[in-house]
Amino acid sequence: MLKRDVREKLIAIVGEENVEDNNASLLAYSYDSTARYQALPDAMVAPRNKHEVAAVVKVCNEHRIPIVPRGSGTNLCAGTTPSEGGIVLIFKHMRKILEIDEENLTITVQSGVYTKDILEAAQQVGLFYPPDPGSMHISQIGGNISENSGGLRGLKYGVTRDYVLGLEIVLPNGEIIQTGGKLAKDVAGYDLTRLYVGAEGTLGVITEAILKLIPQPETKQTMLALYHDLEAAAESVSAIIANRIIPATLEFLDQATVQVVEDYAKIGLPTEAKAVLLIEQDGAAEVVARDMEKIATLCRDNRAFDVQVAQTNEEAEQLTAARRTALSALSRLKPTTILEDATVPRSKIAKMVKAIGEIAEKYQLTICTFGHAGDGNLHPTCLTDARNEQEIELVEKAFAEIFEKAVELGGTITGEHGVGMMKLPYLHLKAGEHGLEAMRSIKKALDPNAIMNPGKMFDPHTKQSTGVEK
Amino acid sequence: MLKRDVREKLIAIVGEENVEDNNASLLAYSYDSTARYQALPDAMVAPRNKHEVAAVVKVCNEHRIPIVPRGSGTNLCAGTTPSEGGIVLIFKHMRKILEIDEENLTITVQSGVYTKDILEAAQQVGLFYPPDPGSMHISQIGGNISENSGGLRGLKYGVTRDYVLGLEIVLPNGEIIQTGGKLAKDVAGYDLTRLYVGAEGTLGVITEAILKLIPQPETKQTMLALYHDLEAAAESVSAIIANRIIPATLEFLDQATVQVVEDYAKIGLPTEAKAVLLIEQDGAAEVVARDMEKIATLCRDNRAFDVQVAQTNEEAEQLTAARRTALSALSRLKPTTILEDATVPRSKIAKMVKAIGEIAEKYQLTICTFGHAGDGNLHPTCLTDARNEQEIELVEKAFAEIFEKAVELGGTITGEHGVGMMKLPYLHLKAGEHGLEAMRSIKKALDPNAIMNPGKMFDPHTKQSTGVEK
């Protein structure tokens, strides 16, 4: 519970209606989309503008109160679980698209803007914001930036980081800084912009962003390639890239996932296939047509038993929409769904999927795998029950092995979900002890009182709050 | 001069032949490509591998000896001038291309590899490494990464940062870390990779890099558009982008530059034009043909009095090669050439070029302007004489005004050259005091003894060497 004087200070800044600390509110902000992580905050605070954010941060810094900046809470790494209590900062009053600049191809937004609204605003003027994380219909851009969200178009178009040109940040000391700008080139000092992308809210609060837009691709085509075995699908992926074609989307689904998605979406997916690739190309009409033809041939050459090209836009939309439902579809099957995102170099996908299968079998677990084959970003998803402690112990062992295997193959413990609380115990596998030490020293330098989202990414270095009563 | 015991320790690590401290060597490493900056180091050290780099850094850290990592010294910001003495670290033994991975589209290189060799190695297997800084024929990739070098293809393809997937870094404490990997997606902890890109050697020594390659564009076309006035050229740039075309290259040269380049290259450049755009598009043949036709029409609609399309590859090569000689050509005219790279949002180019002209006139200086119009990265170049103290004072005043104007227009003090010593006094203009403080705190956290390239980017926080005799 916040001390009375702290509570009053916060109310003086944001107004009484924007500080909530009744039980219902605290419960609502005690968890995000990650199974098995929950902790009550001391209050929810909703500042109305950057100056209020700065003032709130100053109060929290003075009283050593943890701040958990939270978008829509769609993250899958327990990145916004208020594990150390404190306040959850939400951005419901900061939802403005401030500007679309068609000459410089940028969009400037407040951090509470929904990702989908950015895509749509760009589309309305013939421009394109490519990052499309699975949760884009409800996720907020501040969260996307803090988690460096990926999505289905990472292979060809990159991730959120590649579209952030500038940020407005409230530092942990409450000062506001601007980084970057509407600039394709800017090397004035350290790249704070990219340091804050993916920093998971541990280094400050992002209040505004300048994002890069690109011309909308002229046209798009979608196909499915069906396989009797996984290796053939992986070899097709390699063959496509080896032929110097970079598709806009190159998704992999295993049979279990296809079956579950079909049960859910009922659009006639090929449940008889052991592995399916969903492939999309966009660009100029001639190029797309030529690429799709080549891709179809390469898939057949690599033992696809069928290649189905979507005949209409609606059909294509249905296919990608179905792929996007994978997580929702899988979560219907068992009480608890644990979605992971171990990532490997593209050439190691077959090895990784095979290893996941072996690990699942070893621990007798149900793990379905789908993901972004084009960029090696897999989503092994375990269907389990958090109440079954015995099984959960096995799940943890299995995932630890999966992470180790990914790193062994030259990969990483997380491709697009972030570290949060969930991968904190594994970060050393990828970063190494000295790398971890370097990261911690940056954290300590910028947030000496450890108020910013403590308990995420690594253990907090200090946490004696003077503003909260236990 | 290095103390005898330190000198012996260094020789024990790298061998006697790889420590040079005779006067000729010290003089050779006392300056880089930046006019008016010079300082003698205490020694040149050339480690043979990363372990030797690490051992050298440990010795230097112990004795607080400044380390200046240096590629070919082609930077234009006095980024490798050993202003605090110490050792200059060179990479002549670390020039190996370690691997081209055609499946993951990566190239792994040691930091001493020449940029041009990377482009050529990629090209040989039908792949493409887009960053092409002006000095790419002799620059080394370690320097490119440390300066986040840009080039002519920034608009469409981005800068060095966009192609660095992973790094091997020797930290200031002498520990070796690996960041990133052959991964399109990786969010395991802070983005150390991008923090070190553009850190100008102030946070550690880069020893190896994994770079991203992309498929080689099928075809390329080049044209010149000639104008009677600058505004018309700037409006053409805006019109091209407004029509959702992103050319591979979109360069601007003013009349003075065109004349000087023509005097030098003698290829029949249109010296009668007040402003010239050099435009290149690459990609699939149909798309390039269509884009070039549209671009030509847009240029004519925006008052180009002539549009000349290169008829052969040789002719096209000649044009871009001529553009690349701009700096060399200009440097023939006066004893001292000071090349700047104030950068503004693309939409502000006309305003910026006009302001540069007014400032030149105000101070009665010769400033030629050329640069990357597509990304707002201009190179106002002052032809002067460093021995004329009175004029140099005016030059400094003029550039200070140019930087202020750039920032006022939403731009930056440096688009691709870096801060180094040269822009150190101006960094606060772009970063702001709190941003600068955040950067300094990162520097202090990672390099507490201030041994890494001290005196660059910001004033060193401490510099009591115990390993050098004054």
From TrEMBL, chains A, B:
Record keywords, A-Z: FAD, Flavoprotein, Oxidoreductase
GO terms assigned for molecular function: (S)-2-hydroxy-acid oxidase activity; FAD binding
Gene3D superfamilies reported in the protein's UniProt record: 3.30.465.10, 3.30.70.2740, Vanillyl-alcohol Oxidase, Chain A, domain 4 (1.10.45.10)
Required cofactor names: FAD
Pfam families: FAD-oxidase_C, FAD_binding_4
Top-level taxon of the source organism: Bacteria
SUPFAM superfamilies named in the record: FAD-binding/transporter-associated domain-like, FAD-linked oxidases, C-terminal domain
GO cellular component, one term: glycolate oxidase complex
PROSITE patterns for the chain: FAD_PCMH (PS51387)
Family of this protein: Belongs to the FAD-binding oxidoreductase/transferase type 4 family.
Name listed for the protein in its UniProt record: FAD-binding protein
